[in-house]
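Dissemination and training. As part of the outreach component of the grant, students in the summer workshop were shown how a complex can be specified as a set of sequence lines and then modelled as a single object. The example used during the hands-on session is reproduced here so that future cohorts can follow it. Participants entered these lines:
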Amino acid sequence: MSDNFEPRIVGFLCNWCSYAGADMTGTSRIPYPPNIRIIRVPCSGRVDPLFVLKAFQEGADGVMVLGCHPGDCHYSEGNYHARRRYALMHRFLDFVGIEADRLCIDWVSAAEGHRFAQVVAQFTAQVQPLGPWNGLQRRRR
Amino acid sequence: MSESIQTALRTRARELLELGEVSCVIGYERSPRGRVRPAFIYEPADADRLVWDNTCHHNLMVYLHDRKTPPRRGEEVPRVAVVAKPCDVRALNVLLHEGQIAREKVFVIGVACAGMCEEGTEELQARCRRCRERVPIFYDALVGEPPKVTAVDEDWADVVELEGMSAAERLAFWTREFDRCIRCYACRQACPGCYCFECMAEQVDPLWVGIAIELPEKAFFHVMRAYHLAGRCVECNACELACPMHIPLSLLNRKIAKEVEALFGYRAGGDPQTPPPLATFRKDEELPL
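and obtained this result:
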């Protein structure tokens, strides 16, 4: 794949930790790749697998689901459910041909501005060599 | 063997209807064309229509709750009897667990099953060769003797073969398979686990699946349907048998079943006490993400 390919990444960020963490990254003036398009959700447990597949279908090259660290969920247990859901989803998407590296689930707290930048940079670098995602995709009109 | 099961089934069905224990017996009958099809017996005199042989592959649990016309408020849900193979009973177990049916509304006529054959052959279906139980895990009445079949170890060969391919090859494989889909939804209608009043495939707001009969819509439907059955699919294979385009849907379901067993040590429909894996969690578990 060409080196100047910039992956389009959709990030589902939980309102209470990861979104605030991303905010922290910004207010701390820490640079991070502009590839991520952030969608704020109430909780990582709110991220229906439909969202992830839909994102891939509508032209995302990679999808991130970021939530509070296990044990820190604002709603006590949302991220535990998300953890199970995406551990399975990961393997299943790989099976239908969407490389496992295109999906990422991780935990970023509201204080971890540095970590957010790091996680996004890492994931962007991970998706970049895979190239654009063209399979099972809706045609662009 | 199937002769004696058939006789016993008819006797039992007649008895239940005569005593008024149930309003209907759901079983199998022979269609005018000679194939076996689901039968709904309301009168004791009709009990002799019931048949049993190695082509009774339909999962009758799908008829237990009528998703198109749910009972009105205050209306009594009729008690029915249903002929159930071991795999069907596991599907019923899932429905019971999810509160879809009340146990006392179903009389389970369990059948000791020697396996179902591929259509038009005398060869057992692959899923029946892998079957781990020949007698239903629960029943109200059991028909037939447990057949002497040596259980085989779970064999994931078909799934492993696809796993061995590269992601691009797998994508090409599924593109080819999904492309044949005509979106008839027969897989969904045949599935006992697919009981939503409004399927995500038919939701309009938000529109998850467009109305076009194009690859992205078809792929989306099949991938999401399989995932909605994660930890719930009992591998009765009703979807694949119903598919007019012969899409290997069981591969999707079996991949998930394999991972569910590896990650959570859970097998759908087996144990009425354990909640399905995606409806629960353990705080201390380490899952590879």
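Chain B touches chain A at residues 159, 162-163, 167-168, 170-175, 178, 200, 208, 210, 214-216, 219-220, 223-224, 226-227, 230, 252, 255-256, 259-260, 263-264, 277-278, 281-283, 285, 287-289 (CB under 8 Å). Students were then asked to discuss how this feature might be tested experimentally.
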